Amino acid sequence: MADDDETIPMPREVTVDLPAAERSREIAIRVRDLTVGFGPKIILDHLDLDVYRGEVLGFVGGSGTGKSVLTRTILKLVDKRGGTIEVFGQDRDAISTRENRVMEQRFGVLFQQGALFSGLTVKQNIQIPMREYLHLSQQFMDELALLKIRMVGLPLDAAEKYPSELSGGMIKRAALARALALDPDILFLDEPTSGLDPIGAADFDELIATLQKTLGLTVFMVTHDLDSLYSICDRIAALAEKRIIAAGTIEEMLANDHPWVRSYFHGKRARQLAVPEHRREGLS
């Protein structure tokens, strides 16, 4: 069980002043005036972004524009030069290292290629966050790992297999099981359907949507997959010119006049299908 020597309060949730149209929605991640650079090169320049609690936000942008940099900056894996990042109302720079560590337990991260450790079994990979953040018996960790394996739709015998013995789709699911190991509130996904065939990608989208609804997750998904944007994303944010140039529902993005947004959603490889009926209902 977790160490009881010192009780750390969960991050305090506050009411954020929102525009009238969004006043009923709580912000899970609030980024303001964010600037990130490497040497003389500025990657993100005074960027603003809101991620609402309980939504699936699709995050798009051209290659090399800084999508993964933004994700890693929110996770404090990349240093910022300016601006603020608040998670559930807490400024990550204003809280202690220990409080940030507690906050990290509310995050689950799926990296683009899965990033499984090749020398560990699936079960052992899933248990890595448990060993880092919790104090649990081996038996309990084994039970939890099997629970996560079932949750992502893998057969139980995958637990003792190594990444080299898995298909690409199984690797994605195993990595997702590890991301869910600590029952996170926010799930970060970096190109979750890349490398999957259309059927496998659709199945993975369906899995993410089911888990989001069942577990009440907030999902921040970097993706180039137009099918994912249409089928499971509540909103989309577009990164270009080192900032967020547009954010809204798929309908709002299709109507946006920014040249990059129009090229992305109406270009030669854009999806030439009507917005499904279920996406037109209950979204704003």
Describe this structure in words.
Helix content is 34%, strand content 23%. With 284 residues, the chain is of the alpha/beta class. The strands form 2 sheets. A 6-stranded mixed sheet has the order 6-7-8-3-9-10. Strands 2-1-4-5 form a 4-stranded antiparallel sheet, with helices on one face. The protein is globular and about 55 Å long. The N and C termini lie far apart (42 Å).
Mean pLDDT reading: 87
What structural category arises from helix and sheet content?
alpha/beta
Strands ordered across the widest β-sheet:
6-7-8-3-9-10
Low-pLDDT sequence parts: 1-24, 280-284
The main sheet comes to: 6 strands, mixed
- Given the structure, what is the number of helices? 10
Order of helices and strands: EEEHEEHEHHHEHEHEEHHH
Principal-axes shape call: globular
Q: How many E-type strands?
A: 10
Describe this structure in a few short sentences:
The protein is of the alpha/beta class and 284 residues long. It has 10 helices and 10 strands. Helix content is 34%, strand content 23%.
